[in-house]
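hiii, so i know i said id send this last week but things got crazy w the move. better late than never?? heres the sequnce for the chain we talked about at the cafe, plus the structure i predicted for it. fair warning i was half asleep when i ran it
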Amino acid sequence: MVKSEVRKKKRMRSWRWVVGAMIAVLLATAVASMNSPKISLFLNNHKSCHCAEDSRKYTGIVEDCCCDYETVDSLNSQVLHPLLQEVVATPFFRYFKVKLWCNCPFWPDDGMCRLRDCSVCECPENEFPEPFKRPVYRGLSSDDLVCQEGKPEATVDRTLDRKAFRGWIETDNPWTHDDETDNGEMTYVNLQLNPERYTGYVGPLARRIWDAIYSENCPQYSSGEICQEKKVLYKLISGLHSSISVHIAADYLLDESTNLWGNNLDLLYDRVLRYPDRVRNLYFTFLFVLRAVTKAADYLEQAEYDTGNHAEDLKTHSLVRQLVYNHKLQSACPIPFDEAKLWQGQSGPELKQQIQKHFRNISALMDCVGCEKCRLWGKLQVHGLGTALKILFSVDSQNQQGQSLQLQRNEVISLINLLNRLSESVKFVHDMGPSIENATEGQVSEPPLSKLKEWQRIWESVIGIRFKKTPS
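okay and structure toks below
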């Protein structure tokens, strides 16, 4: 009797150790699962079970715009992206005039990149279209400026003179830094031969450009802290930054030894997708530039796309007309961004000059980019964004409302190429984003192998159970 009591007490003590060990392991596992979302609470959970959720992360109206994400994605994939791909390949839109060799006004140029892909192939004199070499108009006289609809002085008129195009002009854009009339230092570049992609321009010298843009010219905001106009500038720059990061990730040098190029999806996630505000700002910038293009529809439809190749020029004109007067776009998203709500009140003109100065500083910083190809695409896209600002806020420094729109040929080229780059970025994020995020955030089914082995040792030492080896 006594012996049986002793054996029973020993068994109870043994089971207390087993139960205690089980509790300890489960608690350790739970803590580990909270610290690492990739660790499952159960060892044999080979397949995760997730509740059905909406796979779309971005829904509803794009902030500060007039279209929703679903409409933007649908219009872009079905209408805008295919059209823009054709437009930018035409002879008129593939050549961009740019000042590549400039002195940085802020610090010495010591940030050259290390790859041959960083250099730009300039066009020989006989390659770019002959009409591009002809003299252009120096602008219109003040007598030729038309007042549009006589709106109150504080508001921005949404319309442009319907007799818009009067020939290509040569004049400076108040929003950008380069002197576009200084043809002596300009060179033509074939954009099709100089794609925007990874160049090896990385590290602190490359980050210095963006740090200067954000810290000196584009302060971050939180809701209610700054006026709407400054918020718009920040979102435009953030959206452009996101788009450039997407381009780099989409065309990345995966193996320099074999010259293997492809998608770097980890980079796309790390730089863009993991930050929802960057994705939202990308969509915002796309709609902002799209609004500038649709607002200038009459001007762009009447413009002369003359390269000396009559058949190609007719095709270009037809494609531009399809773009700016597209009935699907007009019905689904007639006003992508409402610029009339900005520059209101007595401080409007002063505020516009202040933000214009900020953007000119950002434009000037492009001369400090140490990589030639990065400088080319930085200049083109900032120039295109400056053109969009000029179209949407076409009021001069004296606040003479209703000034007729006057654009350089180079401004139109940069504007459409920028819209195409943003369109490509939006499409790439829409097509690849959900699967990348699911792969990155949804890997919760299996704990790491090292954790499995650690747990196996605990169980083996406590209750002597031998697990089967985990499949490698």
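btw The chain has a mean pLDDT of 74. thought thatd interest u
miss u guys!!
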